[in-house]
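Re: Re: token formats

Sure, here are both.
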Amino acid sequence: MRVSVALCISHCARRQVDFRCGATSVSSTGMEVQGVLTFLGLVWVARWVLHIMVDIVAALRKFVWARLSKDNLPIKYGGKWAVVTGCTDGIGKEYARQLAERGMNILLIARNKDKLNNVKQIIREESLGVETEIVQVDFSHGRVIYQEIARHVEGKNIGILVNNVGMAFSPPKNFVEASEDEVWGHVNVNVASVVAMTQLVLPGMLARGRGAIINVASIGSSCTIPYLGIYSATKAFVDFFSESLSWELRGSGITVQTLRPGAVITNMSNFTEVHRKPSFLVATTKTYVTSALATLGHSGRTTGYWPHGFQVFLMDEIFNRRLCTHMFGWRFRALLKAEQKRVAEEQAKKK
């Protein structure tokens, strides 16, 4: 009996020791896992902080340092002429004015002859000694217009090309409501024009070893935008094409810049009251272009305006693409409903 009890006590003691050893082993393993996770967390935080610091330094370089000096654009980019598409309103018109103020001759390309002549007259009055030339074409007509443009480009030392012409639904609407002309207009105006105009002027720039191509995309290229889906998709094309072209032209002396503006007060974006008045995130064309033009040669891919850069930071680092899509979708759905209600009320009053 005593032997049996002794054996039982011995067995229990051994089990207790094994349990304690097991507990110690589990505890040790848990501490190791916790240590690894802590290390990975610190690495992620350090990476995030470093990323933000790099962004801040880049922003200071683009939006502060770049504005301290103004380059002689015709000399820097090897040509006296600047070509601006979609130049009769908005961002394009302001680029034409400010490039003329900086000593560039301007080749104005747009579809409305009266507006072209108006911009031409403004430039002549504001920038004495600057030559201007107009080309009246409709970019929505596609390939057939570029022979006429090529005729005006020939023989000119083009230092800067601003691919600005664009179109979008105004106000936003469902894709199924878009006409065939609107669908092909987006492709011809927003996509084909950028590629075709670049193909026209790039050989001359390469021959001189200098030049600048500014491709105006949109903040909408960062995520999909319901009710402006064709627009955001075409601007994503501009963004990708511009970035790939920039890589191909490394070391050639040609600067390729992608602009991704947010809200700017233009005829294209005046479908909502919010976009008709300047605010922190809504810029006037003069404010925007003054800022964006200063970044040329200092940043290859930029919003051009620091509040829009802050907006992109929030979209990329704080939110995500899917959430931004929902946010834009809800916003524009509300705008559509408000617009429909307004139209219905006006029709009711007329009755």
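Second one below.
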Amino acid sequence: MSTIVSRRQRRLLAIAYHLFRPLALFSRRRGRWVVGTEEIAGMVSHIARALPRSTTVVHRPHAFYGESYDIVIQSPTSRFEMLRRLYGGPIVLAWLMQRAEGFIYVGSAGFLMNGFDEREFEFEFITRHGGRIVCYYTGNDIRSPKLMKELARKTGVPNFGTVLGKVDPVFETEEYEQIRKRRAEVTDAYAEVVFNARVDQLSYLSSATEPFLYFYPDDGFHDRRSKFADDGPVLIVHAPSNPALKGTDEVRRAISELAARRQDFEYRELSGVTNDEVLAALAEAHIVLNEFYSYMPGVFGIEAMANTCALVTSADPRVESDLGVDATGAWAVTPVDAIGERVEALLDDRAELRRQAIAGFEWARAHASNTASARVLREALARSDESARLAEPGQSQASTR
């Protein structure tokens, strides 16, 4: 059934593109980008804000983010939900190809069903008709568990590769690994710019990549250093989207041991709640425990620093060089087996706790804000655009990478 739908989607895309083609005569494509189609931690919305003339498209809105989008392909309240789910993607893509200069793909999803070719048909169709492709990877969409496990063996430090198989055996199958290889090959062939964390999201990509950018909204930064003036209990917050991957068992063990001998803190664990509830907790929090199998902060970690919380995480700028040397000291680098020790040190030294929170706030505002990320994004797109202009006539954009 999926093979039949895929073939129909491809035919529909070709037909719809030519039907909509006259619209290109009345549309200004230059500088217009489409961002979609999979919302991951608000990244679609954040990237779109960095490109004011962009259009956002998602198949379905994210359950925990109250963002609005220009186009939502699927709608459970529509009488035509089945048709929209099966055939809405190619029609929307054909329409947007007349109006946009290029497409920024967040994650692994496309407009069409891509389980067979990892978006190769879709990417080839877009580039053949003059469109540009940018890929923005956010984690397991490109990360190779096999390569990560090899890195863990070399370094002796556990990472995502050592725990993914415990979450689901599928992560350790050859089929899963081959999909990541194929996805990397297609990306290398067609994407002119690729954003990825080189170590934290270790992959089979062979092309040069741009550092992962957070695009955290400028208005989400709040200097809350005044909360450290209170001598009351320290609020510690942990909000795991996936407890097994974030090291939650070790967090709970460390907190339990601390609670057995001291009562000067409160621990609050959030799971399955809206982003607004998480932000409300961060406004009060002093210490935030992010994730402990990662080499870079997660989006929750950026939210924590943006709210002047002292971040405790395994992220390490010495390993993930994409973070840059400026990240050194922005958070408390903490291995998964040293969570309790690090938290206790911060509880014992309120001045250091405050200093750490302020350092994180200043780093995040300078490097992870929408303004900072947008500048890097636009520079990367401009470099790619210049490379395409310098390419010989008839040379494809993909071949200029």
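The CA atoms of residues 118 and 179 lie 8 Å apart. The two ends are 37 Å apart (CA to CA).
- S.
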